[in-house]
Design brief:
184 residues; 7 helices
């Protein structure tokens, strides 16, 4: 059995259990709400993408910061002998929505990200997420992720093929970052 890229709360093979084969005992409220909306037909993949529109008090990070993150990540992947990640617009829109959501709650969390991807119709053999807050640039956020064992594992995981990056600035000027990874 080959090892899967896994960082608790960050990357889990799609449809699988968490560490030690255990399934989470509780669903997060966000995942539960998304599931109910999807089951009722109120949240389709198109609506999930439109839900990433930024609320009042938030704006997108300036200067193409999200694109620069992917360039920097791909540079590190090449150094590690891994294939570059391909930017996927749908994953980018979801990452932007994810960054906006955690900024709106003013709490860095991995809760609910898998449910949001499933509702949006994202399918992959492996999924992952990195989030961060406070870094002022693409360079700084990639350096932060590279310094963290679990986040670095996501950045360099050979199972991941596609990615999307989102960055928003909150009303206080803090940047919130999210990068979503998907395999085949």
């Amino acid at each position: 059995m080959r090892p899967e890229p896994f960082h608790p709360g960050c990357a889990v093979p799609a449809g699988s259990a968490g560490p030690g084969g255990k399934r989470p005992a509780r669903l997060s409220m966000a995942a539960l709400a998304l599931g109910v909306l999807a089951a009722c037909g109120l949240l389709t993949p198109d609506r999930a993408l439109r839900a990433s529109e930024l609320p009042a008090g938030q704006r997108e990070c300036p200067g193409g910061a999200a694109g620069e993150v992917l360039q920097r990540v791909n540079r590190e992947r090449r150094r590690a002998g891994a294939a570059p990640l391909v930017a996927e617009a749908r994953l980018g829109a979801l990452a932007r929505g994810r960054a906006s959501g955690i900024a709106g709650r003013r709490r860095l969390s991995h809760a609910g990200w898998q449910g949001a991807l499933r509702v949006a119709g994202v399918t992959a053999d492996t999924l992952g997420e990195n989030v961060a807050v406070g870094q002022s640039s693409a360079r700084a956020v990639v350096a932060t992720w590279l310094a963290s064992r679990g986040h670095r594992a996501n950045l360099l995981a050979r199972d991941f093929r596609r990615s999307g990056v989102g960055c928003v600035v909150d009303a206080h000027g803090r940047r919130w970052w999210a990068q979503i990874f998907a395999g085949r």
